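Handover notes (outgoing to incoming on-call)

Open items:
1. Cupin: sequence verified, structure written out, both below. Nothing else pending on this one.
2. Nothing else urgent.
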Amino acid sequence: METTKFKFIYSCLAVFVLNGFSLCAQTAATVNSEMSIANTIGDADLIWHKAPDFFPNCSFTILNGDISKPNLDLFFKIEPNTDIISHTHNSPERMVLITGELEVTYEGEPTRIIKAGSYLYGPAGKPHKAKCLDSGPCVLFIALVAPFDANPTE
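Cupin structure tokens:
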């Protein structure tokens, strides 16, 4: 009886270990098949698109993802001395200002001057406006959870 119990435990342990190795191998294969990405704002292969008309003097380039799908990363460029009207997004925005100085005002909050290298978080649905100051252009890295949208509030 004791031998049978030992064989059963040993068999269960062997199956667990082998399945664990199999799962690890599958996960590693999946992760390793995706290519890494490295871009700078001056890369010649980036395709810059004109932003919607209510964002004059602005352009964007998609770094990773699809503009109509969740989990999008992009660079957004605002020319010097350009105002961005009040607007909202369905997605929270996680941003890093790469170049320039940006004046940003979120509804109900004081205006802030954001300098290159600064991180900024914008809650979904919260109206905000901005102005790229004369030290521009202002280039933002923006990460979105939901598909891209911009809805003017003015």
